[in-house]
Amino acid sequence: MGRAIAHLGQLEAAPSRGVVLPDGRSAFLVRVHGRVSAFINRCPHQRVPLNRPEGSFLEAGGELIQCGMHGALFLPESGECVFGPCQGRFLEPVAISIDTEGNIHLAGE
């Protein structure tokens, strides 16, 4: 496996975090109901980063991804927008794998 982009432990205190991929693209990880998902940090509506100024990617209830620019809501399982101006569109997924030590890698690396 290649270099880890994060560790599961980093998603315990704060269930979402931004990461920089080896190719320099900005992405983020979310952990909802024990499942970790990763997406490119770009809203399909205005192509802006999703995170709010404090760095969070989840709405207050911690169940959905929320765009900090205009409040669109996305399912963490699929990245589908379920509320807002980009409803029906999807975040760009990043395939990840988690090793036995909790390190999160890009899938295939």
Automatic annotation (TrEMBL):
<keyword id="KW-0001">2Fe-2S</keyword>
<dbReference type="InterPro" id="IPR017941">
    <property type="entry name" value="Rieske_2Fe-2S"/>
</dbReference>
<keyword id="KW-0479">Metal-binding</keyword>
<keyword id="KW-0408">Iron</keyword>
<dbReference type="InterPro" id="IPR036922">
    <property type="entry name" value="Rieske_2Fe-2S_sf"/>
</dbReference>
<feature type="domain" description="Rieske">
    <location>
        <begin position="3"/>
        <end position="87"/>
    </location>
</feature>
<dbReference type="Pfam" id="PF00355">
    <property type="entry name" value="Rieske"/>
</dbReference>
<keyword id="KW-0411">Iron-sulfur</keyword>
<protein>
    <submittedName>
        <fullName>Rieske 2Fe-2S domain-containing protein</fullName>
    </submittedName>
</protein>
